[in-house]
Structure formats: C-alpha cells, structure tokens
Amino acid sequence: MQRHTIHSKSLAGWVALVAAIVALLLLFVIQSGAAPPELPAFAETTSQGGFAAADSAPDLTPIERVAVVIGPENGAVEDAQGDAPSPPRRVPNAATLELRILSGNSDSWFAAVLADQPAFVDDSGPTWSATLETGGPRSFNVDESGKGIVAFTGNAVGIYTFTNVRPGIEFQVAALDEFDLPIARQTVGPLFRGERRVVGLVVGSTPIEVRGRVLSQTGEPIAGAVVSLSELGHAKVQGRLTDGEGRFVLPCVGANKLVLTVAAPGFAPLFDTRFEVNADPTELVLERGRSVRIEVATPNFKPVSGVSIIGRPPGVVLPYAAYGRTDENGRCTLDNVPTAELPLEVRVAGRTFRSTLRAGASVHRIVIPAWQSIRVRVIGSRRGDGPPTERVELRPVPPSDGDSQSTWIAPSADRVNFERVFPGRYEVVLERYEDAKMTKLLWTRASSVVEVTEAAPGEAVLFR
Fold this sequence. Notes:
The protein has 464 residues and is mostly beta strands. The protein has one helix spanning 8-32; strands spanning 44-45, 51-52, 68-70, 76-79, 89-90, 95-102, 110-115, 120-122, 125-127, 137-142, 148-152, 159-165, 171-176, 182-188, 196-202, 208-216, 226-230, 237-241, 247-253, 257-263, 270-276, 282-286, 290-297, 308-311, 322-325, 331-337, 342-348, 351-357, 363-367, 372-379, 390-396, 405-408, 415-421, 424-433, 441-452, 458-463. Strands 10-11-7-13-14 form a 5-stranded antiparallel β-sheet, with no helix packed on it. A 4-stranded antiparallel β-sheet has the order 18-17-20-21, with no helix packed on it. It is flat, with a radius of gyration of 41 Å.
C-alpha cells in the first residue's frame, strides 16, 4: 500500500493560491455591492502533515455606497448606485414666502406685495398672479413699466403663504388698511429656488373707524351722500353712503392724513386735502354751490368743441369737483361748483392747459392756442385684406408736451390727416398689427421729426 506525503513546497503553493482567490472575491464584493458567494472550507495543515477542521468563512457583507447627483436641467435628485433607488425629488423653480402680519387686529389688515417687476412665477414665466395656500388676490395695480402692487384678501390670523414667489428679485411686503393704503412696509431680499422664508411684519398703528354726519347749511341731514377717503396724488378711492340720518362709518383706516371728499346730488362737493384721521365724530356741511358757463375759443375767437373741462383741487385725482365738455359753440355748463376758487384742467387734442375759475364767477372764458393739421402719406404696397391693421401715431417730441394721437388707415387709403395739432415737434410712426385688436405688433416704421407752426400745416411721408 502506497503512502502519499505532502512536501513543504507543494503546501506553500496551495496556501498562496487560496489567498489569491480570497483577495479576488473580496475585491469583487466591494466593487459590485453584490452578496458574497459561499466560500468553501479550506483545511489547515498540521505539523504532522495532516488536515484540521476549517474555520467558518469571515463576514463579508458589502457596504452600500450611494452617490447623490443633482441634474443640471430639471433639478432631479436620484440614486446612482444602490439596491433600492429612491424616487426622483425635484427642486421647485419657485420659492415660498410666509408673511405674518403681527398686530393686535390682524383681521383688520390686508397683505400686499410691491415690486418693480412681476413677483411671482408660473409655467409660462414671470407673473403678478400669486398662488396662496388660502385666499386669493383682492386687487391689482400694475403700471406700464412693470411696477405694481397686488393686494390679497385678509384673514383672522394674519398669515399669508405664497407658494410661487419668483426667485432672485427684491420686493416689499406691506399691510394695507381697508382703503388699500400701506400702513407698514418691509423690504424682502431675493429668495432662492426651493427656499421657504418666514417674514414678520409688525403693524404699530391701530385701526380707526371714521364716523360722522353730513348736513346741509340749514342743518338738515343729507341721505345718500358719498363720503370718500383717498391718498393725496393717488386714484384709489374708497367710500360709503350716508344713511337716512346722514351718518356714515369708514372702517379700518390706519393712515394719519388723507383726502376726504363728500359728494351729494344738488350740492357742491366738499374737499379736505388735509383730513386728520381720528376716532372723534366729525360733522361735514355741504353748500348748494353755483352754476358756471364755460366758453372756449382760439385767439381769433373761433369756438372750440370737444374740450373737456375738469375742476379739482391740487393733488386730488378722484373725484372731480366739476366736469363738462364743450359743444359745437365751444360752451358747456358746470353745475354745483364750489363757491371758492377752483383750478381747471382744459384738455383738447392730447394737450392739457390750465386755468383758474374765480370765486363767485358765473361765466368763465378760456382761450387756447390755434392749431394746425398734419398730412401723412404712406407709400408702398399693402398685403392682405380684412380689417385695418395699420395705424399712424403722432408722438410729441420734448419739449413739446401732450398725449399721443393715432388713427387707423383704411385698406384702400394711402394717407391720413390729423386735424387738431398744436404747434410743436412730433414724431410720425407707422405701426402694423396682426389684427385690429392690436394683440401683436408686427413692425414699426418711423419718419423724421415734423415741425408744426401756426403758419402752415405739417407734412410727413412714411414707407412700408
């Protein structure tokens, strides 16, 4: 019977081979994250050349490695490796602002956002339409330059959460009273995408109810009179009607000084441009007023029709103290005019002139400069049929003042006339729109500046 012996050199070779296999398996497990295969039990040699029972294989459970990547385009967050990747998470394109109006009477104020550009965003881009968790817009006031203010409905807790704030712009938040007058403001720095910011706005003013009565000069209560408050130089007006006893209540006023106006049929309107807001009842007395005949003519005594006459104190936007429009004889009548001196605005053909109605006068004559005309000729073929889509606009060039005038060009016409043009310098512009609703401007052609004098009409030529 033959005996097999293991030589030392052969044993060393086997040990090296086993160590290499184990090293490769460990490297594979760490890199792939897969579960390790079951390892065989290797024998350990004894000094006598035999085999001993093998120990169990070591614990080689893989360590999971997760790489977080933010996509450059859509802001998605996803797992690069791992057994169970999490669902994509998106970083919003908008920010969230929580405005808290801190006041003892939070439900007496409204929230507002003021900015030089649209403060919110939706799928189509920047907008003034805010998304509130509760409530919604109350009023908008956005001018042509893009500046604006948007007010929102009030709530009892005074918390407003806007979920689509446009990142990267600076704006103001404000608390408004019942008449949309800012009582407190605070500047908010630009927000980042996905940011949620809480802003507290402290309102120190206490809402005041303005109360009082409206009476005639004989002490009789005037029912149905309109009592209004506004901010000097602003067109926003809020008002209330008096009851059968001439009483009125204007709630939630936070400003200190406002413009108070009272108007009633058959009476001259009352204006107080320095009305001090307080809680004490106030008594307002209206006078019957007067009727004034207005006559408007040129220096050569030619009557001017279609002239608007507006009477109002300085700084008051609305309402008017008096209003009229001249007829073909250049005349109109202003009724219920205050007996005191009254400034007048005379508007005609895009130009505004000033005059002053003397106290107690019953007839007032106004002389305005003579005007000329501008003849505009349009050269070039016109494509397409349908409604007129071209118009000529006359724009005053400084120092000439006034409003622009415009008129449409009929499809078969090649010239237009502006009959009432005061002396000055004007730019004549031809515009073409996609349709008569002026929804889309296709192109603009401008001529040189035209000089208009009292001696001769102006002429301009435009090329399509």
